[in-house]
C-alpha cells in the first residue's frame, strides 16, 4: 500500500515547499488538476526537477487525444498520468499504449462513473495500471465517500492496481486500510494541517503498518 500526496490548491513554489516538508513520508506526489490548469505542465517538470527520485503523478484527467496528452505529460516528467474512466475505450487504449511506450503508468479515475463494477471490469481488461475510485470535491461537500466503491472494484479487478481518492484523512484512514487498496490518495487530509509533516508521518506509518498485516 502506497501513499500519494495530492497537491491541488497551491502554486509551484508552494508545491515544492510542501513536498520538501513531507517527502520522507510519501511515496508519490500528485500535481493536481487545479495546479496544472493554472500553471500548465511546467508544474510537473519543476516538481520532478526538484525531486528527481520521487514518483510524480500528473492529474491531467484526460478525456480525449489520449496518446498525445500522455506523451506531453511524460515529456514533462510525469511517471503516472491520469485519464477519466468515462473516456472512450479507444482513448483508454491510446493512453495505455503510449504510457507503455514511454515506460510510464496510467491511473484511470472513476469520478462520476455510475456503474462502477462494469467499468472496472472493462478498464482492467484494457490494461489500466491503476483504477481509482474517487469522490470529487463537489460530492465530498455533500458528505459522500468512495469506501463502498472501493470494495466493489476490489471484488472484480484482476490485474490493475486499485486506488482510492477523495477526502481521506487520518480519522477515516483505518476504514480505507481495511480494504487493502494498492494506493491511497490524501490531499486536504495533509495539506490543510498546520503541521503537515507530522500529519503525513502519522498517515504514512499507519499505512505501512496496515500493509504489513
Ligand atoms: O483529484 C482531486 C480533485 O478532483 C481535485 O482535482 C484531488 O486531488 C483528490 O480528490 C484528492 O484530494 P483530497 O480530496 O483533498 O484528499
TrEMBL record:
Keyword Ribonucleoprotein listed: no
Pathway entry: One-carbon metabolism; formaldehyde assimilation via RuMP pathway; D-fructose 6-phosphate from D-ribulose 5-phosphate and formaldehyde: step 1/2
Example GO molecular function: hexulose-6-phosphate synthase activity
Name of a matching Pfam family: OMPdecase
Keyword Transcription regulation: no
Catalytic activity: D-ribulose 5-phosphate + formaldehyde = D-arabino-hex-3-ulose 6-phosphate
Entry keyword set: Carbohydrate metabolism, Lyase, One-carbon metabolism
EC number: 4.1.2.43
Domain of life (superkingdom): Bacteria
Domain Orotidine 5'-phosphate decarboxylase: 2-203
Gene3D superfamilies reported in the protein's UniProt record: Aldolase class I (3.20.20.70)
Matches recorded under NCBIfam families: RuMP_HxlA (TIGR03128)
Family indicated by similarity: Belongs to the HPS/KGPDC family. HPS subfamily.
Protein name per UniProt: 3-hexulose-6-phosphate synthase
Species in which this protein is naturally found: Planococcus shixiaomingii
Amino acid at each position: 500500500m502506497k501513499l500519494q500526496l495530492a497537491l491541488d490548491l497551491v502554486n509551484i513554489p508552494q508545491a515544492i515547499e510542501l513536498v520538501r516538508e513531507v517527502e520522507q513520508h510519501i511515496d508519490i506526489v500528485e500535481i493536481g488538476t487545479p495546479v496544472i490548469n493554472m500553471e500548465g505542465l511546467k508544474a510537473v517538470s519543476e516538481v520532478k526537477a526538484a525531486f528527481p527520485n520521487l514518483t510524480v503523478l500528473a492529474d491531467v484527467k484526460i478525456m480525449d487525444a489520449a496518446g498525445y496528452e500522455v506523451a506531453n505529460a511524460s515529456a514533462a516528467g510525469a511517471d503516472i498520468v491520469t485519464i477519466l474512466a468515462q473516456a472512450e475505450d479507444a482513448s483508454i487504449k491510446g493512453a495505455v499504449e503510449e504510457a507503455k511506450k514511454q515506460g510510464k503508468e496510467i491511473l484511470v479515475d472513476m469520478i462520476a462513473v455510475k456503474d462502477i463494477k462494469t467499468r472496472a471490469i472493462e478498464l482492467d481488461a484494457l490494461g489500466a495500471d491503476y483504477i481509482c475510485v474517487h469522490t470529487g470535491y463537489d460530492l465530498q461537500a455533500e458528505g459522500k465517500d468512495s469506501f463502498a466503491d472501493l470494495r466493489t472494484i476490489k471484488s472484480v479487478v484482476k490485474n490493475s492496481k486499485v486506488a482510492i481518492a477523495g477526502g481521506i484523512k487520518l480519522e477515516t484512514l483505518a476504514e480505507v486500510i481495511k480494504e487493502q487498496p494498492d494506493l491511497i490518495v490524501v490531499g486536504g487530509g495533509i495539506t490543510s494541517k498546520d503541521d503537515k509533516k507530522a500529519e503525513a508521518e502519522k498517515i504514512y506509518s499507519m499505512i505501512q503498518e496496515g500493509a504489513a498485516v
